[in-house]
Amino acid sequence: MDEATRLQYLQAMGIDVWVPRHQADSEPMATETSPTDSHHAWTDLQHQVSQCHACELCKTRTQTVFGVGNHHATWLLIGEAPGQNEDLQGEPFVGKAGQLLNEMLRAIGLDREQVYIANMLKCRPPNNRDPQADEVAACNGFLQQQIALLQPKIILAVGRIAAQNLLKTQQPLSRLRGTQHQLDGIPLVVVHHPAYLLRSLTEKAKAWEDLQFAWSIYQTV
Ligand code: SF4
Fold it and tell me: Quick check: CB of 81 below 6 Å from ligand 1?
């Protein structure tokens, strides 16, 4: 991505940035070839999720929201749970928040198709309430299998709820961002949720800082 294009994306995010810190136009894809049965493993897992009734959310979902993206991606983004649009469309991070997430990714030279995006929960909590501990526990096995299949080089925990659950902490997002965490030996960086950024435009600059930080971590792994 050339500099002018990147600045366009940043402007679309509402961020006044004069100089991005790095060149991101050579984002590498994973070089290892997946096992020949990798495709079947993903398909099987997605089928398991679609049939899951392990928690109460199965009763109110329109459909499960498994995850989307490149099975060879080196970046894994993990959000909290499907919202209304996601529940209807069956894909995580769609609608305005999804568009902003795409712009955030492009700002660091990543297309949505180059990453993998999933949620902790595969079914929408009614009225977008916070996930309950038993629901997170019930669904965690699916996320763990996604991580095992993908073997990402870096994980972005998108938003406070995802970050607190993944890191098993109650610390506020302000204390979790800007630090390199680990999830099962994989570097994890916490970023603001785009839905939050849509409500709080002044926070977009922090989101850009988070992404730059994540990129700097990625360069070292
Ligand atoms: S949220 Fe997860 S554990 Fe609960 S029913 Fe949906 S897929 Fe199953």
Answer: no
The response to whether residue 49 sits with its C-beta less than 6 Å from ligand 1 reads yes
Is residue 6 assigned to a domain?
Answer: no
Which one is predicted more confidently, 147 or 28? 147
Q: Quick one: average pLDDT of 166-180?
A: 96
Distance from the alpha carbon of residue 213 to the mean position of ligand 1, in angstroms: 32
Distance from C-alpha of 163 to C-alpha of 203, rounded to nearest angstrom: 17
Res 8: pLDDT: 58
The answer as to whether 26 is a domain residue is no
Beta-sheet pairing, 75-79 with 116-119: parallel
Cβ–Cβ < 8 Å for 100, 197: yes
Identify whether 27 is part of a domain. Answer: no
- Residue of the nearest CA to atom 2 in ligand 1? 139
Q: What is the CATH number of the domain that holds 136?
A: 3.40.470.10
- Segment 110-121 shows an average pLDDT of 94
